[in-house]
Amino acid sequence: MFCFGTSACDRLRIIRISNSFLCAFGVVLSIYAYHVETQKERDSQYVAMCDVSAHMSCSKVFTSRFGRGFGLLQYIVGRESPYNQPNSVFGIFFYATVLICGLLPGKLCGVTCVLMSALSNVGSIYLACILYFVLHDFCFVCVTTYVINFFLLICSVFRLRTEGVLAKQKQQ
Questions:
Q1: How many domains does the chain have?
Q2: Do residues 16 and 99 lie in contact, with contact meaning Cβ atoms separated by under 8 Å?
Q3: Nearest-10 crossing angle of helices 7-42, 140-171
Q4: Which one of 18, 74, 93, 101 has the lowest number of neighbouring Cβ atoms within 10 Å?
Q5: Cβ of 64: how many Cβ atoms within 10 Å?
Q6: pTM score, two decimals?
Q7: What DSSP character marks residue 68?
Q8: How far apart are CA 27 and CA 45, in angstroms?
């Protein structure tokens, strides 16, 4: 999409920068979550930086049965299946994909970002309910990713709208 100094172009640039920042932060948090989970699995005495108290423990959440395959894949593919990966692996894939699609022009990439972000928000609500009602825990890393996912959805919707405005301007 070519931009020639219009406010819609400026908006699109800001949206892309915001999307990139959010995705990069999401990747970093997902890598940290993966690190915490693998360290805790290797060493039960490991205390992560995000383990604040008994009810504010990210390692407790990451090593729970809900920390792999969203607690669901084990029933479909088996607990030891290579597809039953830590949620953080799915997070890295998600944020990298949305980052790439967010930088590429076109309606297909825009729609992909909206759909993936909407799905991630459904997953965030599911995992937040598990966190609160089942695990009775608060996880800073988890909640931060839920917030990132929400803002990614907003960026994705704004991007799609802005690209629509630019397409109309180009036709005129």
A1: 1
A2: no
A3: 150
A4: 93
A5: 16
A6: 0.92
A7: B
A8: 26
Give Cβ neighbours of residue 106 (< 8 Å, ≥ 6 apart).
Answer: 1, 163
CATH of the domain at 156: 1.20.1440.130
Structural domain boundaries enclosing 12: 7-166
Residue 1 lies in a domain: no
Instruction: Report the SS3 class of residue 17.
Output: helix
Q: Are 65 and 147 in contact (CB under 8 A)?
A: no
Contact 94, 113 (CB under 8 A): no
Q: Which residue type occupies 124?
A: S
Rounded CA-CA distance 65/92 in Å is 19
Interacting residues of 18 by C-beta distance below 8 A, sequence separation 6+: 151, 155
Q: What is the pLDDT along the chain (172 residues), one digit of tens a residue?
A: 455 556 888 999 999 999 999 999 999 999 999 999 999 999 999 999 999 999 999 999 999 999 999 999 999 999 889 999 999 999 999 999 999 999 998 999 999 999 999 999 999 999 999 999 999 999 999 999 999 999 999 999 999 999 988 888 878 7
